[in-house]
Amino acid sequence: MPLIGAFIADSYLGRFLAVGLGSIITFMGMVLLWLTAMIPQARPPPCNPATERCKSATTAQVAILISSLALMSIGNGGLQCSMAFGADQVNRKDNPNNQRALEIFFNWYYASSAISVIIAFTGIVYIQDHLGWKLGFGVPAALMFFSTFFFFLASPLYVKNKPNSSLFTGFVRVIVAAFKNRKLRLPPKNSVRMYHHMKDSEFVIPTDKLRFLNKACFIRSPEKDIASDGSATDPWSLCTTDQVEELKAIIKVIPLWSTSILMSLNIGGSFGLLQAKSLNRHITRNFEVPAGSLTVIMIFTIFIWIALYDRVVIPLASKLYGKPVRISAKNRMGLGLFFSFIHLVTAAIVETIRRRRAIGEGYGNDPHAMLNMSAMWLFPQLCLGGIAEAFNVIGQNEFYYTEFPKTMSSIASSLFGLGMAVGYVISSFLFSVVERVTSKGGKDGWISDNINKGRFDKYYWLIAIVSGVNILYYLVCSWAYGATADIESKVSEENDSNEEELPLIDFKNEGSYDKDRLVKKS
Known about the structure:
Layout: H1 2-13, H2 15-38, H3 59-79, H4 82-90, H5 98-130, H6 133-153, H7 167-180, H8 222-225, H9 241-268, H10 272-277, H11 296-321, E1 325-326, H12 329-360, H13 379-403, H14 409-438, H15 456-481, H16 485-492, E2 500-501
Parallel strand pairs: 1-2
């Protein structure tokens, strides 16, 4: 849904309407779900404790439940554009500190998301468990109402970018036009008059990367190809430079985007909940932390690290260098993958120690036994996982937003979610393959219902190896991609800003001059 919503937002509705309609539809779904708790006829009756029999839900009751979930899913497709819409509000090309402003926005957008997850996992769950489902569903619905109300209330203050024509149709037109003009020879030097562009085009000359697609916007005969109003006489034979660059942006980013799939695989391949259940989670004699609540440590780490990075690390580094410094979005993506690798190695080591302790205490055949081992052993891997996510996810979102044309900002904001979904699917597939292969011949496989008998430590090591290979793959993709928009803009602005990038990893001369971005309008 997020990707579909992004296409609709960029092509037809615009991001403001997409977020607004998404909010309304989500609110409708939440109200419908709340009504299933409020109206007895909208849900099956309670189970009979004496006979332990439960009456099945009727077709109408199932339809109401599915409708509420469907509405929330559809609405979420529009709400996913909120990050791109928010970035539009702070994105100012004439601001010399524009990149830093965007970085701060993406940092705190994700930090606020982390806080909302903590509230949902603690406050809302507490209400549902202790005060009932009526209030448990009613509070989120009320919060959604106020969120939607205040969003529309501030409507006059927003920057509202107009939607582009159908992006998908534009992609197909570029491919068709480039194929039709495949025998054309492009001149060695480019000129504005050679390529078709509109007055408000972001690009007046196409970039040199993926140059074969430039044939789609090359003007062979101005008299035949261009109409009196400046449009192409045949849009399937001549496209605009913006249409060409939009397709290039998708093609260029696919390799780097694919590295995020493995990042999601690392998250999906974690068995921290199973580990936590077998460890001592008591803080006092009478208070035990629920196993599922330990994941809040990772979310807290995300928030704390974002705050430290934005308010301590970057200001301190700037003070040491004597000028503003920052870590580029692409470097932060790489750092996230590195910390994810360390997270998996740590998890494998902890699981090896935990399993050895379980067998040593005689609990090899008892998966429900609580070991004489503190759950705080999971603290390092949870913290490392939070730091990895903070670096990689925020870096990804900022990278896609700054690298894609403005007409594709909603699609840019949906790519991380798409990568995560694909990663979880691959994680499930890998899980099944490992279970089937390691349990051949009636042997106890790595994956077992008994965590003490299984070899989850080996599974962690396997994913860690895959993660290490993914880092090498990322380095190659990063080198092939070249300099990013924020680095290139610093060079083309002729030192209008003294901002300097922290010297972490120099992927293909990040600070080098690249003429591609100079074809964009300032």
